[in-house]
Design goal:
Layout: H1 5-24, H2 28-31, H3 45-48, H4 58-78, H5 85-114, H6 124-127, H7 136-144, H8 158-203, H9 212-230, H10 232-240, H11 244-258, H12 268-271, H13 276-295, H14 297-303, H15 306-313, H16 315-333, H17 339-373
Length: 394
Amino acid sequence: MQRYEQLDSLRGLAALAVMIGHFLMVFTPIVQNTSGLGLLDYPLNLLKYTPLHAIWGGHEAVIMFFLLSGFVLSLPFFSNRQQTYTKYVIKRICRIYIPFVIALLIAIAMREAVYVSKLTDLTSYYNNLWVIPPNWSSFIHHLLFVGNYNTTRYDPILWTLVHEMRISLLFPFIMFAIVKGGWKLGLPLALLLSYGAEILLASLETRYMTNFVVSLHYASFFIAGALLAKYQGELKKLFSRLNGWWMSLLLVIGLCCYSFKWIGYGEDFHDMFMPHRGDWMTAIGASIFIVAAISSVRLSRQLQRRPLLFLGKISYSLYLYHMIVLLSLVHLLDGKIDTPIIVVIAFVVSFGAGAMSYYFVELPSIRLGKRLTNWGKKPAVGTVSHVEGAPTTV
């Protein structure tokens, strides 16, 4: 099965954007609603309410993650190389769930080790994190992915992994429809799930982002990613027909769609798309980036540079640990070092934590999944075993 290293790099860049966004949210001017001020009056709006928001757009990156997961997980089904459901689930658990549980335990341990009292000098978002002590009920909810519970309690990014695991477990059944029906069945199904979730959310009280209805909405982007994989040949041909100027224009359009949530923020036309239809605008932009990454020789070559490939490798661990690192250092050093310096230190340490988790947690977990699913199977003569780090949502 073909390996898409450039998609690893896209995933790494998306994870980096999430981290940058979370670290910038420490500072009040970033989280304040200043959309009513012009760029000349408030130059920071150039970073907040223009396509440049893609640099630190966390929610946009999550949509990208789900599209990439759908793309990669669907490939074996289109080449008729899918495994049994049991083997598929074992590999998913080893790939996603084991690193997730270890990160959860480390987050709880660090909270207990460094937390003294509630922060009061940061933004309200950070001042209210780690305030509630751990308890068994919350811990069990996190382990089982059941219920509508607060995932910001220990590590604020964990809510995306709840949806990732839920959707992953159902994904092989969804793929039967996509393999047989293609876009004629897949696209209406994706829109039905998303629109149906929007209707249900309007009538249900859902306090947290972990409810099952939201999982239906995000499942639609797994389907969209699978459709990109199914029709990648046709999409590559269309993309290859574009000359340099048209290709550049398409990428600009993709960037504007990807950052749509922040362009015209607060305007009536913009609010008509929020929240879930705005996710589809983001998905269109992310889809353009994915197609460009696998179609453009020049872009693909840039995305396969070693620093970006390394970023892609550690992206899941970077995603898991950057908030744990930041919260630990903020609570440990608050009042002793200026906040901007703490943020810079946390930024650097996060890469170290991500690399350590990749080599000492992720890779062993992947190898465990391979051993469990290949139990009793004799290796073919002349083959060389290797560890596959297929792109997965972080």
